[in-house]
């Protein structure tokens, strides 16, 4: 027991810190923050049954609404006392709208909880791909010290669900690769990979990069003895068997993932039977069924018809969305933390409080520099041989999540970099873990610098009130990144 505690206590400390940081000040500010104006409405729609339209799949909103329902909190009909003594309902109409602290705590609870779980899953993935305790621990603390992941998991937002499911999909992918081909464990971990892939894309379509990465890795594995040896050390390199297991694996992941993707839409349609603000995006037949009820039609729309139409509309709106935004930014600036996104502010006498979506500057710059260094290293034969296969996989993951934004015409924001940042930070953590035994002092200095950068940026993560002089210094950082 003592030996187990000695080995695991750093990870226990990581877990305690992860949940502490994510739940600290969770109901503060007791006001609507940034895209809570949208997601708050979407979650509330499941309580009124009035149809809404969103460009993202429904699972994330359903999860938050389901948790609120279990706790007995209604995000729409909770009474809000006004200063004049009157009482109003919650509308989520504008940033800064006052909301009861209890209601916000419940609505923000699940993202915060998954934010803590994400740190632990991230550390677990680092362990699975490195079998290095130092690398797993360093990676866990690096992601813990990133302000962007902290902010995006403290409010009524869904990105952290997608990132958590994506990390678990890769965890189970590496586990299934290490099992004896077509054995019970092989099938079990493959199925779990497929389920979590389905959950990933059920939050946001950007999670589709997951299957792209897995597909490329499986394809290269067929012709690479080195990659096959890394992924499946228990199995002999036989190209025919590897080809068959790769094709079977890919088909299973796609098929099961698709069926998992279908399920939230079924619940979504059942919970939104009435006409609502989302009608205008749908066809006349869809609108009429919402307005008058399916029972009034000889041939009501089937689930498949509704599912197909909604996904087509989501695709069309994603493709044609062209509105500009003052905090919009382009993909090539994201690795340098360019253009933090303004989420919330409050100015009171003698102090100022602001919330920005901003990555840990030191961590993002250093991880981006490592990516560039490794890409240059691949230009030489000696450099390519020096890199382990996992580094290539993580670089692939980074680029697969970032480069598609070259083709994206719609407005995009710094938070779209989060999936790529996940791979960059994981890669950086593994690299530091490999250097730990020989360069403890240097690695310690780097981690201390990252921790300092985290704490300097922390007031913008929590919206902590600052006196004018310190607030001005903090704003210089934002101006520099803009």
Automatic annotation (TrEMBL):
Source organism of the structure:
Candidatus Portnoybacteria bacterium CG02_land_8_20_14_3_00_45_8
Q: Which family does it belong to?
A: Belongs to the glycosyltransferase 39 family.
Segments traversing the membrane: 105-127, 134-150, 156-175, 187-203, 209-227, 247-267, 355-377, 389-408, 414-432, 441-462
Which UniProt keyword terms apply here? Cell membrane, Glycosyltransferase, Membrane, Transferase, Transmembrane, Transmembrane helix
One of the entry's Gene Ontology molecular-function terms is: dolichyl-phosphate-mannose-protein mannosyltransferase activity
Query: Domain Protein O-mannosyl-transferase C-terminal four TM: where?
Result: 303-468
Q: Which domain of life is it from?
A: Bacteria
Coiled-coil spans are none
**Broad EC category:** transferase
Give the UniProt subcellular location, in the record's own words. Answer: Cell membrane; Endomembrane system
User: Per its record, how is this protein called by name?
Assistant: Polyprenol-phosphate-mannose--protein mannosyltransferase
Domain annotation ArnT-like N-terminal: ranges: 13-272
Name the InterPro entries for this protein.
Answer: ArnT-like_N (IPR003342), PMT-like (IPR027005), PMT_4TMC (IPR032421)
What is this protein for, i.e. what is its function? Protein O-mannosyltransferase that catalyzes the transfer of a single mannose residue from a polyprenol phospho-mannosyl lipidic donor to the hydroxyl group of selected serine and threonine residues in acceptor proteins.
Membrane topology recorded in Swiss-Prot or TrEMBL = Multi-pass membrane protein
Q: In which pathway does it act?
A: Protein modification; protein glycosylation
Which GO terms of the cellular component aspect does the record hold? endomembrane system; plasma membrane
Question: Known EC number(s)?
Answer: 2.4.1.-
